Amino acid sequence: MFITYDNKKQEKDILENTSRAGLKIVSGKGAKNKLIHGDNLFILKALLDDYAGKVDLVYIDPPFATNGHFKISDERANTISSGSGDAIAYSDTLVGGDFLEFLRERLIFLRELLSERGSIYLHIDCKIGHYVKLVMDEVFGRKNFRNDITRIKCNPKNFHRKAYGNIKDLILFYSKSGSSIWNDPSLPFSEEDKRRLFKKFDKDGRRYTTIPLHAPGETSSGKTGGRWQGAQPPKGRHWRTDPAVLDEWDGKGLVEWSANGVPRKRIFLDEKEGKKMQDIWEFKDPQYPEYPTEKNLDLLKLIIEASSNEGDLALDCFCGSGTTLVAAQSLNRNWIGIDKSDHAIKAAKKRVMELPENLFTRHDFEFLVEERGGSERSAVKLKRDGAGAICS
């Protein structure tokens, strides 16, 4: 079932009739990492020439269809730009079907850029996010939906309105296929977790818990369905592993027998790296950001570590202040960042350049501009600006 709205184009028309941006290198020619200034739709079409099927991770934080303008403060504008303050960082004026089609066009190109082991995370809010999920179901396939992640974004508010307070947004997580990269992130156990989950102690004082030695599933006619040390798996279940392995565990003291003869496996706290990451995350954004909507750096590091490996390529085509790029650079991933806003490009470049010398050198990225009048004029200004200079 696909979402319908006015002005929805055929996918074939989007792929074939979208203009391809001409890209002009300003500095850093030949570097693997790329910062690109211009309209991301035309740039994504151009990137297909060299990167179709080669991007391993996409994170995007697009506009939220708020029908508003986001300004950068006087102080921040003067920090990242030589211009005056109170400037519009970016406008978010598309709403309804126009917004959904704006996003769908870009998602189609991002799908084509993703590798078969790639994933995409799309950051959105609860007002438009449910409609966006239907668009992503269409573009990436419902079978490739992985998670609707709730992100706690701020402290509770006490606004007077006839509704519950909103402290969350959401991240839609899809893969390109069933063989996506997954590094199974975990969190350290808190002291309360340790007391609650690992209540037992062995003779040496090691904390542990126990889990059943059988697993769900019809009783197998093979080795895992038979008796082991006089015990039979419960009806509709079978042993977790071959009885020979169970014997090995028992010999190492890893099997605990209850008073009524039920075996369970011991799991020791000091052998566990942590608890599995769930789908509710608390990553609050910077209180005094360089750029409106700047996201928490640890949030991006979690996503990048979970769904890519060192040397992989990450792409953010709404890169804003460059948090994705900074996280990727810090974790030894290659990256491509795209944004249309002059302020975003300046902020992203400034943040990457301020990384420690062991993480970044001045020649670590190639800066390109879309060869369309406005972007090229902005690039000249960017080269002249002090803090926002593109190259020396």
Radius of gyration: 26 Å
Shape field? elongated
CATH architecture of the largest domain: 3-Layer(aba) Sandwich
State the CATH class of the largest domain. Answer: Alpha Beta
Low-confidence stretches: 74-85, 373-392
Biggest sheet statistics: 10 strands, mixed
Which structural category do the helix and sheet elements fall into?
Answer: alpha/beta
Structurally, the number of domains stands at 2
Strand content: 25-35%
Total helices: the number is 11
CATH topology of the largest domain: Rossmann fold
Overall average pLDDT: 86
- Structure summary, number of beta strands: 20
Distance between the termini: 53 Å
Order of adjacent strands in the largest pleated sheet:
1-20-2-19-18-3-6-8-7-17
Task: Report the helical percentage.
Answer: 25-40%
Topology of this protein?
Layout lengths: L10 H7 L5 E5 L5 E5 L2 H12 L3 E6 L7 E5 L1 H7 L6 E6 L3 H18 E11 L4 H12 L4 E8 L15 E8 L10 E2 L3 H7 L2 E2 L5 E6 L1 E3 L20 E3 L3 H9 L3 E3 L5 E6 L6 E2 L3 E3 L14 H11 L5 E4 L6 H8 L3 E6 L2 H12 L11 E6 L2 H12 L8
Parallel strand pairs: 2-19, 2-20, 3-6, 3-18, 7-17, 18-19
Antiparallel strand pairs: 1-20, 4-5, 6-8, 7-8, 9-16, 10-11, 11-15, 12-13, 14-15
Helix pairs in contact: 2-4, 4-5, 8-9
